[in-house]
Design a protein that fits this description.
Blueprint: H1 2-48, H2 52-79, H3 89-104, H4 110-140, H5 144-176
The chain binds fe (ii) ion (2 copies).
């Protein structure tokens, strides 16, 4: 009986590490779907936005997002698995909410921009949470190379979030109240 116990405790870390790696790869697939989905969604938001400032920042983030897609592909390669997208229900929900905001607000209004910023920031916050976890998880798995890629994307998402905040504070919220 004592022998079985020892066997179990030595086998456990190996098993855990394999499971952690599987969880990590699964989350990569989730984000791969999410980022590719955003490459399709962001142009719609750019088109719907009212102010040039918001259009420009969303457009710039579209380009950044394309780089993030290829960074995920690089990560799959480093992990030795095929790049594969798995539908991310959370991102689908957040972007659907954004589409609802476009439907519910008038074209050319700053109120629409306020709504779009809210939707875009929800996207960024989801990404920040996920990439933060992925960077940590990659480190735990001893994959500093992949952790570095995740950390790079994490920084870009934080920057995008801050830029959206400053647009909201400096410009739109003020003007939307007089609309
Ligand atoms: Fe992203
Ligand atoms: Fe983003």
């Amino acid at each position: 009986m004592a022998q079985t116990k020892i066997k179990n405790s030595t086998a456990l870390p190996v098993d855990n590490s394999a499971k952690l790696e599987a969880l990590f790869v699964d989350s990569l697939k989730d984000m791969y779907w999410a980022e590719k989905h955003l490459v399709k969604t962001l142009p719609k938001m750019v088109k719907a936005a009212t102010s040039g400032e918001l259009k420009q920042s969303l457009n710039e983030h579209l380009e950044v997002t394309k780089v993030q897609v290829s960074r995920l592909e690089q990560s799959f390669e480093l992990m030795g698995v095929k790049a594969q997208a798995k539908k991310c229900d959370a991102m689908e929900g957040i972007t659907k909410e954004g589409e609802g905001i476009i439907e519910d607000t008038d074209q050319g209004s700053l109120t629409r921009d306020v709504g779009l910023i809210m939707a875009a920031q929800k996207v960024e916050h989801y990404e920040i949470a996920t990439y933060g976890s992925l960077a940590q998880l990659a480190k735990t798995l001893g994959r500093d190379d992949v952790a570095h890629l995740m950390a790079q994307t994490l920084e870009e998402e934080k920057e995008a979030d801050q830029l959206l905040s400053s647009i909201a504070i400096n410009f739109i919220n003020e003007e939307a109240t007089v609309e």
